[in-house]
Amino acid sequence: MSLIQQVSEALQFGFIQKALIAGCLIAVSCSFLGVFLVLRRFSLIGDGLAHVSFATVAIGLLLHQQPILISLPLVALASLFILKLNEKAGLHGDAAIGLVASFGVAGGVLIASLAGGFNVDLMSYLFGSILSISTTEVWITWVLSIAIIVCIVLFYHDLFAITADEDYARVLGINPGTINKVLILLTSFTVVIGIKVVGTMLISSLIILPAVAALQIARSFKTVILTASLFSLISVLAGIFISYIFDLPSGATIVLINFTFFVCAWVASRFMK
Q1: Under CATH, domain 18-263 is a member of which superfamily?
Q2: Other C-beta atoms within 10 Å of 1: how many?
Q3: The whole model's pTM is what?
Q4: How confident is the model over 223-255, as pLDDT tens digits?
Q5: What is the sign of the dihedral through the CA atoms of 190, 225, 159 and 97?
Q6: d(Cα 185, Cα 162) in Å, to the nearest integer?
Q7: Which of 27-31, 133-137, 156-160 has the lowest mean pLDDT?
Q8: In 3D, which of 231, 199, 183 has the Cα closest to residue 132?
Q9: Per-residue pLDDT tens for 2-12?
Q10: Using an 8 Å Cβ cutoff, are 182 and 3 in contact?
């Protein structure tokens, strides 16, 4: 059977269709947000919140509730707590992230043990299983992804201003504290909806890699966002089909394709100089 036939066959299945819809929405959300996070040097916040989401997913499974619905408010609160530690407790961003992330992992392990250990459901959230995404999760992803993209568009000029020069943004009447809260809350929502795609262990890669790859070759800010979105979309689409055809883990496949784009972009940037 040819590759085209295999892809056509895959498109006939409902679970592939749901994976493609959710994956594309999450890819765009992650790439849009990732550019601002990388340039603001907030990249590690995604990794820290991913560790927290491990604990919240474990809570959801323990209570036999939809893990995403449990994770959304708890991870959002954790993101604001990290920001508060950074602003009020005198902790640098990486220290605050490390503190909350380590607590999240420890809590997740304890909760998982109470729930009977690392079962199949928890493992799918750890390492991603987009091919098993449910209809409910697709709808949640649809609503939140659209909300994230709309918020980024609405706050685009403010986000761009504080990313370019925070002091000048203050002169323009922009409150960096408020915009940072918006950015970090959007990041928490993106992490939660993305864990089904690549898992809590790899979600930060889906946020960071497309942005870093795009920054290697794009020259304008909007071009960086569009290029990052393109890299992310192709990675997710290709990852879904490759994982289905060759029976590979979908999350790891998507991240490796993203990393390949980064390597290619980095090599290309050396020749462009």
Answers
A1: ABC transporter involved in vitamin B12 uptake, BtuC (1.10.3470.10)
A2: 8
A3: 0.86
A4: 999 999 999 999 989 988 898 888 888 888 888
A5: positive
A6: 16
A7: 133-137
A8: 199
A9: 777 787 888 88
A10: no
pLDDT in tens, 64-119: 788 888 888 999 998 888 888 776 656 666 677 778 888 888 887 888 777 665 55
Torsion 178-105-247-139 (CA) sign: negative
**What is the phi/psi pair of residue 133, to 5°?**
-65, 140
